[in-house]
Write a structure and sequence with these properties.
Layout (H helix, E strand, L loop, with lengths): L6 H23 L2 E6 L6 H17 L5 E6 L2 H10 L5 E5 L16 H6 L4 E4 L2 H6 L4 H13 L3 E6 L3 H5 L3 H12 L5 H4 L2 E5 L13 H19 L1 H6 L2 E4 L4 H8 L6 E4 L6 H10 L1
Parallel strand pairs: 1-2, 1-8, 2-3, 3-4, 4-5, 5-6, 6-7, 7-8
The chain binds phosphoenolpyruvate (PEP).
């Protein structure tokens, strides 16, 4: 309050102050996450050794205010789960079955993933959408099953190069979210992390500019707000993924609607992965 100012002016300053305080509070309340997606890399021995070195590093230097997740192939889940101490580094799978149990040879259910001690599962990664033809309806089924099994879901969305060039990127992501995710209840949405991964940036070395990432993340948060309200929108974590590396992570993470990253290639190199976590 500035002494001597007219009462009306004081009131408006006070309102501005309250609004800024509210925005800051919501922003800092959001969980910040760096998740490594190992994809189909590392045999069992290599994976366990790598997980051990990551665990050791973050036991000594806990990531300030952010959560680190390792999303491993299925075969690593149990072993890595035994290595990771509770509360330091979390564990996730990269996919789950669209059915809960039964005669589905080769599949791994969400409940099985949960039984290893994993807390997360990635659903809707573009490699699953492209190579295994997983569509929004199927991804919605997987998401519901994963949540009902007690897992948190990292739900991926993102446009291909041609869609961006045609100016259709916002509409594509809107459809993916509406069909894949927005059937969930507000309570179920608390278990969701959204990962925006422009397909043209995954594993290509091309990265969305920080402004492109911010535009999309802001848009996604707006869609969540329209459907689930302000509180849900302010609290949901939205990650960026696509050729994120130590040299570009800090600039991308500095954007107000970017709450961390889903990291592919760079999550396989200890120094790079740690540098990205520290950038956050
Ligand atoms: C990913 O696989 O989710 C990913 C973002 O890969 P990369 O970081 O290698 O582009």
């Amino acid at each position: 309050m500035v002494v001597g100012e007219p009462a009306g002016k004081r009131k408006s300053n006070w309102n501005d102050y309250q609004t800024i305080k509210y925005i800051l509070k919501q922003y800092y309340m959001r969980k910040k996450i760096v998740a490594g997606n190992w994809k189909m890399n590392m045999n069992l021995e290599e994976g366990l050794k790598f997980a051990k070195s990551i665990e050791q590093y973050f036991s000594e230097k806990p990531p300030a205010g952010s959560e680190v997740i390792l999303c491993t192939p299925f075969i690593h889940l149990q072993g890595v789960s035994e290595i990771l101490k509770p509360g330091k580094v979390a564990l996730g799978a990269q996919n789950c079955a669209s059915e809960s149990s039964g005669a589905f040879t080769g599949e791994v259910s969400a409940a099985m993933i949960k039984s290893t001690g994993a807390q997360y599962v990635i659903i809707g990664h573009s490699e699953r959408r492209t190579y295994y033809h997983e569509d929004d309806r199927l991804l919605n089924k997987k998401t519901v099953l994963a949540i009902n099994s007690g897992l948190n879901v990292i739900f991926c969305c993102g446009e291909i190069k041609e869609e961006r060039e045609a100016g259709k990127h916002l509409i594509v992501v809107k459809r993916q979210l509406e069909d894949g995710l927005f059937t969930l209840s507000s309570e179920e949405m608390k278990k969701i992390v959204i990962a925006y991964e422009p397909v043209w940036a995954i594993g290509t070395g091309l990265t969305a500019t920080p402004d492109q990432a911010q535009e999309m993340h802001h848009y996604i948060r707006g869609l969540v707000r329209e459907k689930y309200g302000k509180e849900c929108a302010e609290q949901i974590t939205i990650l960026y993924g696509g050729s994120c590396k130590p040299s570009n992570a800090a600039e991308i993470f500095s954007k107000p609607d970017v709450d961390g990253g889903l990291i592919g290639g760079a999550s396989l190199k200890k120094e790079d992965f740690i540098a990205i976590v520290e950038a956050l």
